Amino acid sequence: MDYRLAPEHRFPTAVDDSAAAVRWVHAHAAEIGADPSRIAVGGDSAGGNLATVVALRMRDERGPKLAAQLLVYPMTRLRGPIEGSMAVSGEGYFLRAIDIEWFEDMYLGQSADASHPHASPLLVKELGGLPPALVITAEFDPLRDQGEVYARRLIEAGVDCVHTRYSGAFHGFFGMPAAIGRRAVAQAGDWLRVAFAP
Predict the structure, then answer these.
(1) Which of 12, 39, 173, 187 is most buried, by the most CB atoms less than 10 A from its CB?
(2) Choosing from 45, 85, 89, 120, which is the catalytic residue?
(3) How far apart are CA 153 and CA 122, in angstroms?
């Protein structure tokens, strides 16, 4: 399943489509050979944003109970301040702060509120009751801090959360064939295997 893309379809269309996909999989699990009790959400970067928001919506809207959420350098705060890793790694490490600003403008447009919890899950007040999470971040990534703060807040809220920062890595490394990318993919696979265990 796919979701409709910005700028033709701005926020919250992608969130709504992603949430609908989870509900569809749960409702049609028998047809597709899936276990409705073992559904996870996951994504990297903007996809990590959608995964966090879908997990929140399933909790808040009494949707299907999720087994896990895999968040790879997730974007959890849109249009936030240019500081910390956003400032230090915002130029020269593949993903630039200026690119992030452009992506945000395409996604939100001029009218959407970046502080809406379905746009910036880092601003959600209560994170308790969410499914177990694996949060992977990269040392030289503008999004590093917001992913790590989100992981810390999950832990503080009592969520079973594992966080790993990959030293020397930059945004996008998870999908690359280099050894460090393969290690991260292997970690994700091992963690999901445990999360899906009966």
Answers:
(1) 173
(2) 45
(3) 8
